[in-house]
Structures are given as C-alpha cells and as structure tokens.
Amino acid sequence: MLKLIITTLTGLMLFFAPSVLAQEEMSPEQKAWMDYMTPGAMHEMMAKSVGDWKTVNKFWTDPESEPMVNEGTARVEMILGGRYMQTTHHSTVMGMPMEGINLQCYDNATQQFTAVWIDNLGTGMSVSTGVYDGDANTINYAGTMVDPMTGDEISYRSTHQIIDDNHQIYEMFMTNEDGEFRSMVVELSR
User: Fold this and answer.
1) What is the pTM of this model?
2) Could you tell me which residues come within 8 angstroms of residue 48 by beta carbon, excluding any fewer than 6 positions away?
3) Distance between CA 145 and CA 163 in Å, rounded?
C-alpha cells in the first residue's frame, strides 16, 4: 500500500512539475488536477473555525426523554495545507470520558462536504456527505452508521450551522418507528 501511495505521488509530481516549474500553459488534465487540489472559498470558510471552543452537548435517546447534558471542549485545526478540517472533542457521556475526532472536507470535484466521525465510545465510523446552504450558512448532511445493538446500518441527517465567527450549532436527527427526532445538539462557542 505504501509503495502504491509513493508511486502515485511521484507520478503526480512528475506530471505537474514541467508545466508548473516552466510556467507553461497547463493541459486540461493538469488544470483539472490543480483545481481539484487547490483550497478555495469553502476551505477558507472552514478555516475560520480554527481555534479552541467550549461545547454544551445534549443527547436524547428518544423524543420523549429528557436530554443528557454535559460540557466539553473542541479544538479545530486545518490540516494538509488547509484542505481538511480536524476537530477533536473532549467531554463526558453517561459519566464516561469521551474523545471524538471529526474530519471534514470540501471536495472541489463533487462540490460536497464529507464528514467522518470516530470516538472512543465505539469502534466504527459514521460517514456523511452534505451541501452548503449559503442563505442559512448551514451544511446539511446525510449519513450512515452502524447500530451496535442490531449490527444494521442506519441513516441519519445532521446540520452544521455557522451562526457567526464565535458560535456554531451541530444537530443530529435520527428516525424511529414514530418518525424523525433530534438526538443530539452540540453548541460551540469561543
């Protein structure tokens, strides 16, 4: 696998180097790759979140339950040359320490966001894709994860709203036999 990665990267460098270094006009293929790999406006939007945040986390197991509420922290970093946003969360869930990592990107080719969530309360990943609604300043995601009680893949939707430079809200919605309900809210502030 490492050999394949090194070969691919070497090939890309050789592919781009002549025109980039000589400042020649790029072929359509080279331009497509340059457009794909160059961070743009959506990456700049994500970069505004860089820093340390306080979080208030609310979880519901069903629509009739009272939420479990706890406080935590989140650290946001842009990685790999500003192409990806990594958020590391620390809090407690049901009295247990929780550490989670959200890796988020904007794919220039598909013009969609992708988010991958992992944490120490499980061994799987949730993966979602979404589009940005500029009017609401919100990324609307749809994703899947595994229900550990059944082993089945389940769908969910979530929203990531950027209220202003110092306030954001992440909401997650699950579906049960009665319909959709809000299962989680994370309020971020700094």
Assistant:
1) 0.83
2) 162, 165
3) 27
Tokens 């969360």 found at:
89
3 state SS of 149: coil
State how far the Cα of 188 lies from the Cα of 71, in Å rounded to an integer. 10
Q: What does the alpha-carbon distance between residue 47 and residue 18 come to, in Å, rounded to a whole number?
A: 31
Contact 184/171 with Cβ under 8 angstroms?
Answer: yes
- Residues of the domain holding 75: 42-189
Structure token pair of residue 124: 């799987």
Q: How far is Cα 159 from Cα 58, in angstroms, rounded to an integer?
A: 15
In a shared domain, residues 169 and 181: yes
Residue whose token pair is 């994370």: 186
Would you state the structure tokens that stand for residue 162, as one six-digit string? 């950027």
Q: What is the pLDDT of residues 7-50, one digit of tens each?
A: 555 555 655 555 555 457 889 999 999 999 999 999 999 999 99
Domain count, the chain: 2
Rounded distance between C-alpha atoms, residue 156 and residue 172, angstroms: 7
pLDDT at 159 over 90: yes
Q: Token pair 């609401």 is at which residue? A: 136
Mind listing the pLDDT tens digit for each residue in 96-149?
Answer: 999 999 999 999 999 999 999 999 999 999 999 999 999 999 999 999 999 898
Number of Cβ within a 10 Å radius of residue 187: 17
**Where residue 69 sits, what CATH number does that domain have?**
2.40.128.20
